[in-house]
Amino acid sequence: xxLFQTAGFNxxxxxxxxxxxxxxxxALPVGILLVFISPFxxxxxxxxxxxxxIINILILVTLAxxxxxxSPLNPGILLIISMLVILEAIRRHYKQYDHLNIxxxxxxxxxxxxxxxxxxVLLSLYSLFIGLNNELNxxxxxxxxxxxxxxFKGLFVLITTKLGFPVLFMVICINIILxxxxxxxxxxxxxxxxxxxxxxxxxxxxxxxxxGGFRIYRENIIxxxxxxxxxxxxxxxxxxxxxxxxxxxxGRKKYIxxxxxxxxxxxxxxxxxxxxxxxxxxRQAMKSMAESSEQIVYLDLxxxxxxxxxxYDYRESSLNATLLKYWNVxxxxxxxxxxx
Length: 340
Hints:
About 60% of the residues lie in helices and about 0% in strands. The chain is mostly helical. Strands 1-2 form a two-stranded parallel sheet. α2 (about 55-70) packs parallel to α5 (about 110-130) and α3 (about 75-95) packs antiparallel against α5.
């Protein structure tokens, strides 16, 4: 729970965004995606049989349709996961039969997994296709090479600006080293295999990000919101390795490690000091508009008000004014502009 930062490291390790609309745009669809893939994960990782009954199939098909069209991230995530599932199927087939037959390897997948995989690939490709009509997808503004250069810059800024990610990386590295020093039992081998696939997914996802186009409000391509799938992979790896060591160590080792983990939890808890007054400027602006009798209200405030940037031309506030009236903040639509 302390990793779910709301204030301290919110602009790098962000899961639940301060913006409610962003929560429904990023966190919620990715959370449902985790629910969608969980039965397949439980089947592959823990060996729990996936029952292909009508209820399970209807739930999975419904979630597949929702996920493909619910978020700008999910179609790409699902295609990468599908690609990795196919690669793993090919690897297993080659290992078993000592020859390569890609079609046979794919057809050998469990029938439910194969059907859902086919559906999710087709839906995700269609979602990406219709997404080409998004007027915000200014992919031609910035050349592809420039987007990749900005990606590296954005990645560096994201993981070095605050201590959140460096500390998380440090703990994961320590955990993996400590886990490697324990006996190489099946649980450890599964953790290492999971680490490998999470790493491959994260690298593939980051490399493909610039192909999604350029957004003026996300100048370095990658940001806490588009980095969300990788953040979740890090959380998963942190959880698996930490719990393994806590469950399998005994005596003095377990005591020392428990104290270490308590320190990490305390560090993230203290860092997450939420400031509830951060929206006071925008609240004051809405109060001024509600109390004003002018049709066009001047606001001597420099914070953003229902916008990515301050509004200096009152005509740009037309939609906001309509929405404020709809919400009963104002009795009638009131345009507004701000001082520079």
